């Protein structure tokens, strides 16, 4: 779904591909399309950065689908990082009533065996990314 | 005719509400692996029914299927609260079978356990979205609560508008830090306890009756 950058396979083997996906692009997608987009990228060894993150329901589906795809020596699952602030707690009564969810939080997702969180607090996420 | 239909519908609604109010609430015990969920579930089940729910272990992902104990009647201040306890597998975003090898488990068994663990986590997420009426969220108070799994799960629970109690477990250990958990989730009530030793269970039962009764 994402157009591949113009690099030769040799270049790709030397580095780690990072996909930064805008909120506008995600807005048009259904929940399962978002989950698929993320997992396809991560299973290719890419780091996926979402400008506006996922809703709690989508995060729940992402965990569930990730679990069904884990297989020994091939895919160990994902590492996912967002700021540890509960956005849903900030929703107004009207937002909750209308089912509007404020989930705009930068989210980083990568293969569990390639990304390691070094530090995380309310304002900063620091992670180490390694090649396959 | 319209009046009769309307009357019948409203009687059906009232009956349904009366019965659903008396049905036991299904309370899911959630949390990361090794927080002591099964130890707590067994403690509650033994205290009020005499039976245990499942085996406890130091090996992560010992609970790989959601297990339900029905009709647990908790007596508090002269009234009885009936709940179904659902002990769920610890939630994670990754499972590596090699981690089981460190616990003297052979490779074939480790691969089988990791497969069951992943199925168990998927099952736990499904229960959370569809089948529980309240959540007891168990955390190991010796560990940092600011993890991604905790942040996401609490967010998912809040988005479902489920009542939630946070239990800061393992207060019998020296490096237990309950305040760190209170600070991480200030919007929820945190209760310290040792499910293993049975410390502070009276307060746990008071709050269960208050939140889920």
From TrEMBL, chain B:
<dbReference type="GO" id="GO:0005737">
    <property type="term" value="C:cytoplasm"/>
</dbReference>
<dbReference type="Pfam" id="PF01926">
    <property type="entry name" value="MMR_HSR1"/>
</dbReference>
<protein>
    <submittedName>
        <fullName>GTP-binding protein</fullName>
    </submittedName>
</protein>
<dbReference type="InterPro" id="IPR027417">
    <property type="entry name" value="P-loop_NTPase"/>
</dbReference>
<feature type="domain" description="G">
    <location>
        <begin position="26"/>
        <end position="170"/>
    </location>
</feature>
<dbReference type="GO" id="GO:0030488">
    <property type="term" value="P:tRNA methylation"/>
</dbReference>
<dbReference type="InterPro" id="IPR006073">
    <property type="entry name" value="GTP-bd"/>
</dbReference>
<dbReference type="GO" id="GO:0002098">
    <property type="term" value="P:tRNA wobble uridine modification"/>
</dbReference>
<dbReference type="GO" id="GO:0005525">
    <property type="term" value="F:GTP binding"/>
</dbReference>
<dbReference type="InterPro" id="IPR005225">
    <property type="entry name" value="Small_GTP-bd"/>
</dbReference>
């Amino acid at each position: 779904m994402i157009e591949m950058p113009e690099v030769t396979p040799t270049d790709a083997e030397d580095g780690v591909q990072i996909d930064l996906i805008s909120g506008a692009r995600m807005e048009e997608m259904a929940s399962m399309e978002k989950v698929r987009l993320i997992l396809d990228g991560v299973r290719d060894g890419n780091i996926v950065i979402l400008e506006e993150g996922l809703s709690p329901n989508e995060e729940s589906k992402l965990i569930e689908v990730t679990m069904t795809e884990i297989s020994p020596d091939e895919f160990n699952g994902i590492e996912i990082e967002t700021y540890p602030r509960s956005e849903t707690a900030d929703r107004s009564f009207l937002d909750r009533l209308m089912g509007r969810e404020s989930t705009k939080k930068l989210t980083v997702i990568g293969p569990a065996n390639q990304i390691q969180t070094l530090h995380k607090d309310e304002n900063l996420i620091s992670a180490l990314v390694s090649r396959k | 005719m319209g009046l009769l239909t309307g009357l019948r519908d409203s009687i059906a609604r009232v009956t349904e509400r009366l019965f659903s109010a008396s049905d036991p609430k299904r309370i899911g015990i959630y949390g990361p692996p090794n927080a002591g969920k099964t130890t707590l579930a067994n403690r509650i089940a033994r205290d009020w029914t005499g039976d245990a729910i499942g085996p406890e272990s130091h090996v992560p992902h010992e609970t790989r299927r959601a297990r339900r104990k029905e009709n647990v009647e908790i007596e508090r201040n002269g009234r009885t609260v009936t709940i179904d306890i659902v002990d769920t597998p610890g939630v994670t975003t990754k499972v590596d079978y090699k981690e089981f090898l460190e616990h003297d488990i052979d490779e074939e068994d480790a691969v089988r356990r990791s497969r069951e663990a992943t199925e168990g986590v998927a099952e736990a997420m499904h229960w959370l979205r569809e089948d529980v009426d309240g959540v007891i969220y168990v955390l190991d108070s010796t560990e940092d609560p600011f993890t991604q799994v905790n942040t996401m799960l609490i967010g998912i629970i809040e988005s479902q508008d489920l009542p939630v109690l946070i239990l800061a477990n393992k207060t019998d250990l020296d490096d237990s830090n309950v305040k760190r958990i209170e600070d991480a989730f200030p919007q929820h009530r945190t209760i310290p306890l040792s499910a293993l030793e049975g410390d502070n269970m009276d307060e746990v039962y008071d709050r269960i009756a208050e939140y889920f009764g």
